[in-house]
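step=encode ok
step=design start
structure_in=
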């Protein structure tokens, strides 16, 4: 998939077509909107599977019994990674309009539900294509490309008989 196809897929599946502030021709803005909002959990979960790093959830209070969240992956050196590339709690706090002290990092709390981890799932295929088209560190580097290729290679076929899978659906 190229960037236009990836953008079009997530523009539709994430309901971004209902947001007039998102220009469907600005492909990176569409991809960012998809994974900085509704599907950050799916992105972080797959990213954790690719890298072997821990998925985390940043949480902040939004008022009367409501909270917002953004899922990321934490590298062994403590840096955070999301669709924008390397990030930190201060950047996440700025993006959501909160003070950094009010955004806290927790164990991964939101598991993906939009796809099956197999080589024939349309959503997973489009999600993996995001890593192919996002031209940001570390996604554009040879080390990440190698990890992505290895993850793709180990995906089982969709029609694998039940009970024979070695897939790990944990974070």
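sequence_out=
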């Amino acid at each position: 998939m190229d960037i236009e196809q990836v953008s079009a897929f997530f523009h539709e599946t994430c309901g971004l077509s209902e947001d007039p502030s998102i220009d469907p021709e600005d492909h990176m803005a569409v991809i960012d909107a998809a994974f900085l909002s509704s599907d950050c959990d799916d992105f972080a979960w797959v990213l954790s599977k690719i890298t072997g790093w821990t998925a985390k959830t940043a949480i902040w209070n939004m008022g009367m019994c409501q909270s917002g969240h953004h899922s990321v992956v934490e590298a062994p050196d403590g840096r955070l990674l999301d669709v924008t590339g390397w990030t930190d709690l201060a950047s996440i706090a700025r993006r959501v309009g909160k003070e950094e002290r009010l955004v806290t990092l927790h164990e991964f709390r939101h598991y993906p539900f939009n796809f099956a981890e197999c080589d024939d799932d349309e959503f997973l295929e489009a999600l993996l294509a995001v890593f192919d088209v996002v031209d940001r560190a570390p996604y554009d580097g040879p080390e990440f490309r190698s990890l992505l290729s290895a993850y793709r290679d180990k995906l089982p076929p969709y029609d694998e008989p039940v009970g024979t899978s070695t897939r790990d659906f944990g974070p």
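step=design ok
step=annotate ok -> Residues 40-157 form one domain.
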